[in-house]
Amino acid sequence: MKTRAAVMYEHNQPVVVEELELVEPKANEVLVRTAASGVCHSDLSVVTGAIYYDAAVILGHEGAGVIEQVGEGVTDFQVGDHVILSFVSYCGNCRMCEMEKVCLCESYDVPRGFLLDGTYRFYNSSGDGILQMARVATMSEYMVVPEQNLVKIDQHYSLEQAALVGCGVTTGVGAVLNTAKVEPGSSVAVIGTGGVGLNAIQGAVLADAEQIIAVDIAEKKLDFAKTFGATDVVNAAEIDAVEGVREITKGLGVDYAFEVIGNPDTIRQAYQMVRPAGTAVIVGMVHHEKEFSIPAQHFVSSERRIIGSFYGSCQPRVDMPKLLSLYTEGKLKLDELITRHYRLEQINDAFADMEAGENARGVIIFN
Ligand SMILES: NC(=O)c1ccc[n+]([C@@H]2O[C@H](COP(=O)([O-])OP(=O)(O)OC[C@H]3O[C@@H](n4cnc5c(N)ncnc54)[C@H](O)[C@@H]3O)[C@@H](O)[C@H]2O)c1
Ligand SMILES: [Zn+2]
Ligand SMILES: [Zn+2]
Q1: Using a 6 Å cutoff on CB, does residue 200 contact ligand 1?
Q2: CATH topology assigned to domain 172-311
Q3: Residue 191 CB–ligand 1 contact under 6 Å
Q4: Do domains 2-166+334-365 and 172-311 have the same CATH topology?
Q5: Given 125, 201, 298, 353, which is the most exposed site by the fewest CB atoms within 10 A?
Q6: Is 321 in the pocket of ligand 1 (CB under 6 A)?
């Protein structure tokens, strides 16, 4: 069948929207019609090469849609089911899965962007195979994905709001509740209050944190942060982020700092703004060739902790329906995250707006 998709053919060049041929789902795979795809910074990082994929690859990993066809052996899903796409495939049986660390599942040793049998499902008009970001490719009208990447949801949810749960919401809220396990009464700083960071703020609200300090260089983002529950803001374009947070916390520093940008400098800031024995949580995806450094002796003598958080340490099929329930109960903001809609053809505009700090989240809507 034919589908239109946003394809990265060359790093740091405009993304190409074109018609591709999509083959039928094989065993344990499903054909999904995409309803909406959020535009996450990780998509832009695939374009820049910070998150490395060989070209050509279809972008998009934050989405929701409706099942149109199921492959042989698929028993948990049916045509018509509404699903969120998970950007990890997990087996459910390996050591990491049994430890409930399903996002760290190590069973699938397949090169990035191929489906689990190591082959393509998408081809361009020249007959070249096209990879799928995170094995999903939500920036395509249709996608064939492993059933392991699907989370079934109730049909009354808007697929547009549900799409955001596929990455930003689960990553941000999960970093606070699952990875860091922030205690009630804690003080929290979130550096970078974009689509993911705003959800870390929401997570801190859900955790009953007492003080939630938003740090960003864009005033507009700090305004968003206040509506999502930040109690204080630091504009890092105007003052030093670490000093700003220290001042608000009367010199002590915060219990938890979340870095949600992907920059070695702001990772160091996160480390510096936590109190002794506090925890810096790294959510941002730094360029794959870069490292960060911190003063080693100080790290020991201050007993600070630095931990990584991937996909909010979530269990997609457990956590995503729970997050949607919180939305229904009015405890999680999803509508307010969506500040602009785009058509697939506008993907390069969506990336330009992301770089200009325009949106909380931009969302591509399909017909
Ligand atoms: N760990 C995971 O599983 C996971 C999942 C999704 C996204 N991510 C990563 O999270 C990061 C954020 O993604 P996003 O979609 O929210 O991006 P975004 O572009 O929406 O937000 C980034 C924010 O950082 C701010 N910022 C940039 N430089 C800054 C600085 N020096 N000081 C303070 N603020 C600064 C920007 O103004 C913006 O508000 C990216 O690195 C993305 O790849 C990680
Ligand atoms: Zn993402
Ligand atoms: Zn596993």
Answers
A1: no
A2: Rossmann fold (3.40.50)
A3: yes
A4: no
A5: 125
A6: no
Fold of the domain built from segment(s) 2-166+334-365:
Quinone Oxidoreductase; Chain A, domain 1 (3.90.180)
Q: Show me where the domains of the chain are located.
A: 2-166+334-365, 172-311
Tens of pLDDT, residues 304-313: 999 999 999 9
**What is the per-residue pLDDT across 9-44, written as a single tens digit (0 to 9) for each?**
999 999 999 999 999 999 999 999 999 999 999 999
Residue 27 has a pLDDT of 98
Label each residue of the chain as H, E or C: CEEEEEEECCCCCCCEEEEEEECCCCCCEEEEEEEEEEECHHHHHHHHCCCCCCCCEECCCCEEEEEEEECCCCCCCCCCCEEEECCCCCCCCCHHHHCCCHHHCCCCCCCCCCCCCCCCCEECCCCCEEEEHHHCCCCECEEEEEHHHEEEECCCCCHHHHHHHCCHHHHHHHHHHHHHCCCCCCEEEEECCCCCHHHHHHHHHHCCCCEEEEEECCHHHHHHHHHCCCCEEEECCCCCHHHHHHHHCCCCCEEEEEECCCCHHHHHHHHHCEEEEEEEEECCCCCCCCCCCCCHHHHHHCCCEEEECCHHHCCHHHHHHHHHHHHHCCCCCCHHHEEEEECHHHHHHHHHHHHCCCCCEEEEECC
Percent with pLDDT over 90 in the chain:
98
pLDDT digit string (tens) for 234-248? 999 999 999 999 999
Say yes or no to pLDDT of 51 above 90. yes
Residue 1: partners with Cβ closer than 8 Å, 6 or more residues away: 21, 22, 24, 142
How far is ligand 3, taken at its centre, from the CA of residue 101, in Å? 8
pTM over 0.85: yes
Beta bridge partners of 22: 122
- Closest atom, ligand 1, to C-alpha of 309: 1
Ligand 3: distance of its center to the CA of 239 in Å?
45
